[in-house]
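Hi there, hope your week has been kind to you so far. Thanks so much in advance, here it is:
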Amino acid sequence: MTALLFDLDETLVVDEPAVVGAFAACAATTWLDAPALASAARRCARARFRAAPWWPWANDIGIASGEVLWAPLEHPSLAEIRAFAPAYRVGAWADALAEQGVADDALARSLADRFVDERRARMANYPEAEAVLTALAAQHSLALVTNGMSDLQRYKVEVSGLGRFFGAVIVSGDLGVGKPDPAVFAAALDALGASADGAVMVGDSLERDVAGALGAGLSAVWVDRAGRGGGPEGVPAIATLDELPALVG
Protein backbone atom coordinates (compact mmCIF):
# COMPACT_ATOMS: atom_id res chain seq x y z
CA MET A 1 0.00 0.00 0.00
CA THR A 2 1.29 3.46 -0.86
CA ALA A 3 1.55 5.79 2.12
CA LEU A 4 -0.26 9.09 1.69
CA LEU A 5 0.41 11.94 4.11
CA PHE A 6 -2.07 14.79 4.38
CA ASP A 7 -1.79 18.32 5.71
CA LEU A 8 -4.82 19.56 7.68
CA ASP A 9 -5.47 23.31 7.42
CA GLU A 10 -6.47 24.52 3.94
CA THR A 11 -6.02 20.96 2.65
CA LEU A 12 -8.79 19.08 4.44
CA VAL A 13 -10.37 21.72 6.68
CA VAL A 14 -11.18 25.37 6.03
CA ASP A 15 -8.83 27.75 7.83
CA GLU A 16 -8.08 31.11 6.19
CA PRO A 17 -11.70 31.90 5.21
CA ALA A 18 -12.77 30.95 8.73
CA VAL A 19 -10.24 33.30 10.31
CA VAL A 20 -11.23 36.17 8.00
CA GLY A 21 -14.90 35.52 8.65
CA ALA A 22 -14.46 35.47 12.42
CA PHE A 23 -12.65 38.83 12.45
CA ALA A 24 -15.30 40.32 10.16
CA ALA A 25 -18.21 39.03 12.24
CA CYS A 26 -16.74 40.48 15.42
CA ALA A 27 -16.03 43.86 13.85
CA ALA A 28 -19.53 44.00 12.39
CA THR A 29 -21.02 44.12 15.89
CA THR A 30 -19.53 47.60 16.45
CA TRP A 31 -20.55 51.00 15.12
CA LEU A 32 -17.09 51.51 13.63
CA ASP A 33 -15.61 50.95 10.17
CA ALA A 34 -15.94 47.17 10.36
CA PRO A 35 -13.61 46.17 7.49
CA ALA A 36 -10.90 48.48 8.79
CA LEU A 37 -11.36 47.20 12.35
CA ALA A 38 -11.21 43.55 11.28
CA SER A 39 -8.06 44.13 9.23
CA ALA A 40 -6.42 46.12 12.02
CA ALA A 41 -7.25 43.52 14.68
CA ARG A 42 -5.52 40.79 12.70
CA ARG A 43 -2.52 42.98 11.95
CA CYS A 44 -2.22 44.09 15.58
CA ALA A 45 -2.50 40.49 16.77
CA ARG A 46 0.38 39.50 14.51
CA ALA A 47 2.51 42.39 15.76
CA ARG A 48 1.95 41.51 19.41
CA PHE A 49 2.52 37.81 18.76
CA ARG A 50 5.79 38.35 16.91
CA ALA A 51 7.09 40.61 19.68
CA ALA A 52 6.88 37.77 22.22
CA PRO A 53 10.24 36.26 23.22
CA TRP A 54 9.12 32.72 22.32
CA TRP A 55 7.89 33.70 18.84
CA PRO A 56 10.78 32.01 16.95
CA TRP A 57 9.88 28.69 18.61
CA ALA A 58 6.18 29.18 17.87
CA ASN A 59 6.96 30.02 14.27
CA ASP A 60 9.06 26.88 13.86
CA ILE A 61 6.26 24.76 15.28
CA GLY A 62 3.76 26.45 12.99
CA ILE A 63 1.65 28.26 15.59
CA ALA A 64 -0.20 31.20 14.02
CA SER A 65 -1.09 34.41 15.79
CA GLY A 66 -4.77 34.00 14.99
CA GLU A 67 -4.83 30.54 16.55
CA VAL A 68 -3.75 31.87 19.93
CA LEU A 69 -6.84 34.10 19.84
CA TRP A 70 -9.09 31.06 20.22
CA ALA A 71 -7.11 27.91 21.03
CA PRO A 72 -7.73 25.99 24.28
CA LEU A 73 -4.00 26.19 25.16
CA GLU A 74 -4.17 23.20 27.49
CA HIS A 75 -1.03 21.32 26.44
CA PRO A 76 1.84 21.46 29.00
CA SER A 77 4.22 22.84 26.37
CA LEU A 78 2.04 25.95 26.04
CA ALA A 79 2.43 27.32 29.56
CA GLU A 80 4.10 30.56 28.42
CA ILE A 81 1.58 31.13 25.64
CA ARG A 82 -1.30 30.33 28.01
CA ALA A 83 -0.09 33.02 30.41
CA PHE A 84 0.36 35.43 27.53
CA ALA A 85 -3.03 34.81 25.90
CA PRO A 86 -5.54 36.78 28.02
CA ALA A 87 -3.79 40.14 27.65
CA TYR A 88 -2.86 39.33 24.07
CA ARG A 89 -6.43 38.61 23.00
CA VAL A 90 -7.81 41.78 24.53
CA GLY A 91 -4.79 43.85 23.52
CA ALA A 92 -5.09 42.99 19.82
CA TRP A 93 -8.62 44.39 19.75
CA ALA A 94 -7.70 47.35 21.97
CA ASP A 95 -4.92 48.27 19.55
CA ALA A 96 -7.29 48.03 16.61
CA LEU A 97 -9.93 50.14 18.35
CA ALA A 98 -7.30 52.75 19.17
CA GLU A 99 -6.60 53.14 15.46
CA GLN A 100 -10.18 54.42 15.13
CA GLY A 101 -9.82 56.68 18.15
CA VAL A 102 -11.69 54.42 20.56
CA ALA A 103 -10.43 53.54 24.04
CA ASP A 104 -12.90 51.01 25.45
CA ASP A 105 -11.48 48.11 27.45
CA ALA A 106 -14.90 46.54 27.94
CA LEU A 107 -15.51 46.50 24.19
CA ALA A 108 -12.06 45.01 23.54
CA ARG A 109 -12.76 42.22 26.05
CA SER A 110 -16.16 41.57 24.50
CA LEU A 111 -14.66 41.32 21.00
CA ALA A 112 -11.90 39.02 22.25
CA ASP A 113 -14.45 36.69 23.84
CA ARG A 114 -16.68 36.78 20.78
CA PHE A 115 -13.82 35.85 18.47
CA VAL A 116 -13.46 32.48 20.20
CA ASP A 117 -17.10 31.65 19.49
CA GLU A 118 -17.06 33.04 15.96
CA ARG A 119 -13.98 31.05 14.96
CA ARG A 120 -15.29 27.82 16.43
CA ALA A 121 -18.59 28.33 14.64
CA ARG A 122 -16.73 28.34 11.33
CA MET A 123 -15.16 24.92 11.67
CA ALA A 124 -15.80 23.17 8.35
CA ASN A 125 -14.31 20.56 6.06
CA TYR A 126 -13.73 21.15 2.40
CA PRO A 127 -16.75 19.53 0.76
CA GLU A 128 -14.85 16.83 -1.11
CA ALA A 129 -12.56 15.81 1.76
CA GLU A 130 -14.57 12.98 3.31
CA ALA A 131 -15.46 11.26 0.05
CA VAL A 132 -11.88 11.42 -1.22
CA LEU A 133 -10.43 10.06 2.03
CA THR A 134 -13.01 7.26 2.00
CA ALA A 135 -11.91 6.21 -1.46
CA LEU A 136 -8.19 6.49 -0.76
CA ALA A 137 -8.27 4.74 2.61
CA ALA A 138 -9.45 1.57 0.89
CA GLN A 139 -6.21 1.35 -1.10
CA HIS A 140 -3.59 3.32 0.84
CA SER A 141 -2.30 3.84 4.35
CA LEU A 142 -2.99 7.43 5.43
CA ALA A 143 -1.38 9.74 7.96
CA LEU A 144 -2.23 13.29 8.97
CA VAL A 145 0.80 15.56 9.33
CA THR A 146 0.01 19.03 10.66
CA ASN A 147 1.90 21.93 12.17
CA GLY A 148 0.50 23.69 15.19
CA MET A 149 -0.51 23.28 18.80
CA SER A 150 -1.34 19.73 19.78
CA ASP A 151 -4.62 20.48 21.55
CA LEU A 152 -5.93 22.82 18.84
CA GLN A 153 -5.02 20.60 15.91
CA ARG A 154 -6.50 17.54 17.60
CA TYR A 155 -9.63 19.54 18.37
CA LYS A 156 -9.92 20.35 14.66
CA VAL A 157 -9.48 16.68 13.78
CA GLU A 158 -12.16 15.69 16.29
CA VAL A 159 -14.67 18.26 15.06
CA SER A 160 -13.97 17.40 11.42
CA GLY A 161 -14.78 13.74 11.93
CA LEU A 162 -11.89 12.84 9.61
CA GLY A 163 -9.60 11.26 12.18
CA ARG A 164 -11.00 7.79 11.52
CA PHE A 165 -9.29 7.68 8.14
CA PHE A 166 -5.76 8.01 9.49
CA GLY A 167 -3.44 5.37 10.84
CA ALA A 168 -1.35 8.12 12.43
CA VAL A 169 -1.86 11.75 13.41
CA ILE A 170 1.40 13.68 13.73
CA VAL A 171 1.28 17.18 15.25
CA SER A 172 4.39 19.35 15.33
CA GLY A 173 3.50 20.57 18.82
CA ASP A 174 4.03 17.04 20.11
CA LEU A 175 7.35 16.58 18.32
CA GLY A 176 8.86 19.96 19.11
CA VAL A 177 9.67 20.51 15.45
CA GLY A 178 7.48 21.35 12.47
CA LYS A 179 7.32 20.85 8.72
CA PRO A 180 9.45 21.24 6.60
CA ASP A 181 11.85 19.45 8.96
CA PRO A 182 12.40 15.88 7.67
CA ALA A 183 11.84 14.53 11.19
CA VAL A 184 8.12 15.29 10.93
CA PHE A 185 7.69 13.23 7.77
CA ALA A 186 9.87 10.47 9.20
CA ALA A 187 7.64 10.30 12.30
CA ALA A 188 4.56 9.80 10.13
CA LEU A 189 6.18 7.13 8.01
CA ASP A 190 7.48 5.31 11.09
CA ALA A 191 3.99 5.35 12.59
CA LEU A 192 2.60 3.78 9.42
CA GLY A 193 5.45 1.33 9.06
CA ALA A 194 6.13 2.79 5.62
CA SER A 195 9.17 4.07 3.75
CA ALA A 196 9.67 7.36 1.95
CA ASP A 197 10.01 5.51 -1.36
CA GLY A 198 6.65 5.88 -3.09
CA ALA A 199 5.08 7.89 -0.26
CA VAL A 200 3.25 11.08 -1.19
CA MET A 201 2.63 14.25 0.82
CA VAL A 202 -0.52 16.21 -0.02
CA GLY A 203 -0.71 19.81 1.18
CA ASP A 204 -1.25 23.46 0.37
CA SER A 205 2.06 24.96 1.53
CA LEU A 206 4.84 25.01 -1.04
CA GLU A 207 7.45 25.52 1.66
CA ARG A 208 6.28 23.29 4.47
CA ASP A 209 4.40 20.53 2.64
CA VAL A 210 5.87 20.32 -0.85
CA ALA A 211 9.50 21.35 -0.33
CA GLY A 212 9.56 19.61 3.04
CA ALA A 213 8.34 16.34 1.56
CA LEU A 214 10.77 16.48 -1.35
CA GLY A 215 13.61 17.16 1.04
CA ALA A 216 12.60 14.11 3.09
CA GLY A 217 12.60 11.84 0.05
CA LEU A 218 8.84 11.73 -0.58
CA SER A 219 6.85 12.79 -3.60
CA ALA A 220 4.32 15.61 -3.25
CA VAL A 221 1.03 16.90 -4.58
CA TRP A 222 0.33 20.60 -4.16
CA VAL A 223 -3.22 21.63 -3.25
CA ASP A 224 -3.49 24.96 -5.07
CA ARG A 225 -7.10 25.91 -4.36
CA ALA A 226 -6.55 29.53 -5.37
CA GLY A 227 -5.02 28.62 -8.72
CA ARG A 228 -1.85 30.57 -8.02
CA GLY A 229 0.40 28.35 -10.11
CA GLY A 230 4.17 28.47 -10.04
CA GLY A 231 4.80 25.25 -8.17
CA PRO A 232 7.99 23.24 -8.65
CA GLU A 233 8.46 21.35 -11.88
CA GLY A 234 7.34 17.76 -11.64
CA VAL A 235 4.99 18.32 -8.69
CA PRO A 236 1.32 17.95 -9.69
CA ALA A 237 -0.98 20.79 -8.64
CA ILE A 238 -4.66 20.19 -7.95
CA ALA A 239 -7.46 22.68 -7.39
CA THR A 240 -9.51 20.29 -5.24
CA LEU A 241 -8.92 16.91 -3.64
CA ASP A 242 -11.29 15.37 -6.17
CA GLU A 243 -8.32 15.26 -8.56
CA LEU A 244 -6.14 13.31 -6.16
CA PRO A 245 -7.31 9.67 -6.60
CA ALA A 246 -6.46 9.70 -10.31
CA LEU A 247 -2.94 10.95 -9.51
CA VAL A 248 -2.10 8.35 -6.89
CA GLY A 249 -3.78 5.44 -8.62
